[in-house]
Amino acid sequence: MEHILRNTVLTALEQKDATMMTIYYLLTDKTYRKGVTDKLNDPMLKHFWNQEFNSLASSQKTEMITPITNKLGLFLTFLMTRNILGTPKSTLDLDDVMNSGKILICDLSKGKIGEDIGSFLGSLLVAKLQISALRRVHIPEEKRKDFFLYIDEFQNFATETFVQILSEARKYRLDTVLAHQTTAQIDRMLLQIILANAGTIISFLTNSPNDEDLLLPIFSPDIAKHDISNLPLYTFYIRINSTEIASTFTGKVAKFDVSQNEEIKRSVIEASRHQYGVTIDTQEEEPKKPEITTSPPAQRKVSKEKTFTKIEVQPSSDS
């Protein structure tokens, strides 16, 4: 399955304005697949489709393709994600968002878009932000602006990407604030790596003995056992690790109400849609198939052959 997916993705990348729909049609539409493979320039990809893939029996193809199309179908059958993943060029430039200090708010509520789609889009955004942060290597260190990434319900997006973000992206001024309810929601090994790299750790009241066992060594020797489980509401312990290891101290969150202005909210959303949105036809019965194109063959430098003059040496009559 991995072999088929790899070759499918590489084939899709040879098409102009390739999207996830390109991959889907390469696997499910025989006519479209033939049109694409006939114009391929890469001999290895051509061999894969013409020799390996076409030599499989129909039942074998179905068995090997189905797991891939099932995963793709989860996102492509939902109109919102199909419009996102089926658009060749994104109007959202995360490099610009990060470097110019813009604000990006992503509502990935499970009740609106579902758990699987929310986790997928969240992981996709985190990976894109990581790439944008790594691109800051071309920006002088003193000119890099701090960009704060706030993630609520962190357990839904806890992937190995965060290990790299916490260990590598810090020097590119990508600052992360990760919030979740309990440590049991996150893979144990991943959690240990995150805690080892986190500069500031804040703990509110927790009723889980496992949480306290894990967090107590971090705040010790300043707090004793059961101190975390007996914290009053809105009170927290905090430990800041910067150039010098500081002692643990307590703090309290001020309770305040934020009044909402629906008119400002609507105007901000409309302005964002006008600048970054793309008009779509929601009545479209079937997504348009990607155009069959071919990438120009790579230009290879051919060195001129050196010519040599053949010299025949006649043996001497004295020899």
Description:
The protein is mainly alpha-helical and 319 residues long. It is 44% helix and 8% strand. The protein has 13 helices and five strands. It has helices at 2-13, 20-28, 30-37, 43-53, 58-76, 79-85, 94-99, 110-113, 115-134, 161-168, 188-197, 209-219, 262-276; strands spanning 147-151, 174-178, 200-203, 235-240, 249-252. The strands form two sheets. It has a three-stranded antiparallel sheet, covered by helices on one side. The protein has a two-stranded parallel ribbon with strand order 1-2. Helix 10 links the parallel strand 1 (147-151) and strand 2. Helix 1 (2-13) crosses helix 2, helix 2 crosses helix 3 and helix 10 (161-168) runs parallel beside helix 11. The termini are far apart.
Sum up the overall morphology in one term.
elongated
CATH topology group of the largest domain: Rossmann fold
CATH architecture of the largest domain: 3-Layer(aba) Sandwich
Low-confidence segments, given as residue ranges, are 296-319
Bin the helical content.
Answer: 40-55%
- Give the total of beta strands: 5
Instruction: Give the helices and strands as they follow along the chain.
Output: HHHHHHHHHEHEHEHEEH
Q: Can you tell me the CATH superfamily of the largest domain?
A: P-loop containing nucleotide triphosphate hydrolases
Q: Helix/strand/pairing class, anyone?
A: mainly alpha
The figure for the number of domains is 2
- Structure annotation, total helices: 13
Strand content: 5-15%
Measure the end-to-end span: 72 Å
Overall pLDDT score: 80
Radius of gyration: 28 Å
In CATH's first tier, which class of the largest domain applies? Alpha Beta
- Biggest sheet strand line-up: 3-4-5
